[in-house]
């Protein structure tokens, strides 16, 4: 057996026997610290609607979610990346603010990172035109032939049109998780994780005792952490989209964005999701999300998903059976 294979074997045994050690060591609660990240802020307004902008509505939803969690999950430490309409950390650079969000989560040993955003239809945008006035236009007419050919200038009144954006018609929610092309970045950040909770389930057990100075084993461990974070992110994202579907929202499902990285997903040392709660450039969705009803229903959907996620961590067998029953009934279909 080669050295690499032997190390992998030892690592695997350590993972699958970690649950036995749990009987001796008090376990860390599965969800001790949750980071809520209302996207954008201040000079970074995000996508714009007719009456508001992404940063403002995302903050309203984030604050509502925080208040609900404090009331219904008092055992959880909730950290907001921002609580006002400004870039987090008192920063003036959008790029620096993105890095600050991830660093805040990592420095506080977050167990879950939930970023809240609003979408815009982008390439699906339609345009129309409308008359805005008239102008005089000069044109020429010709008469005669050869040397007797004559050009005469005349004028006519023409209508002036203006091109404008039509209201977007795209609607619905979607939740992003780490994309394939940015997985290595997650591995690099996972390697720096200083604390990961343990559960009584063998396949979920990742412990501090697995840290090592051996570069090969350290790489394997980092990959295991990243895989673990990815799987849990996918689970939570699926719960979010299911909750939105249950209140009648159209769901685009769980998405990955390979063409452009999402820093808060790839740089956080924990399961992380980015929730696109709707299309702010669709007047109907903008009005709903900015309303008290829409804000509360959206926050409730995310909170319910987090509660299901917490239940899954604490009682994985029960959660698996519940999800299987839900799928069989068709309730959770999109």
Commentary on this structure:
The strands form two sheets. The chain has a six-stranded mixed beta sheet with strand order 2-1-3-8-6-7. It has a two-stranded antiparallel ribbon with strand order 4-5. It is 43% helix and 21% strand. Helix 2 crosses helix 8 and helix 5 packs across helix 8. The chain has two domains: 266 residues, 3-Layer(aba) Sandwich (Aminopeptidase); 38 residues, no CATH class. The N terminus and C terminus are likely disordered. The protein contains nine helices and eight strands. The protein is an alpha/beta fold and 334 residues long.
Write the SSE topology.
Blueprint: H1 3-22, E1 33-38, H2 54-72, E2 77-80, H3 94-107, E3 112-119, E4 127-143, E5 150-165, E6 173-177, H4 183-190, H5 215-246, E7 251-256, H6 263-266, E8 272-279, H7 283-290, H8 292-314, H9 316-329
Parallel strand pairs: 1-2, 1-3, 3-8, 6-7
Antiparallel strand pairs: 4-5, 6-8
Helix pairs in contact: 1-5, 2-8, 4-5, 5-8, 7-8, 8-9
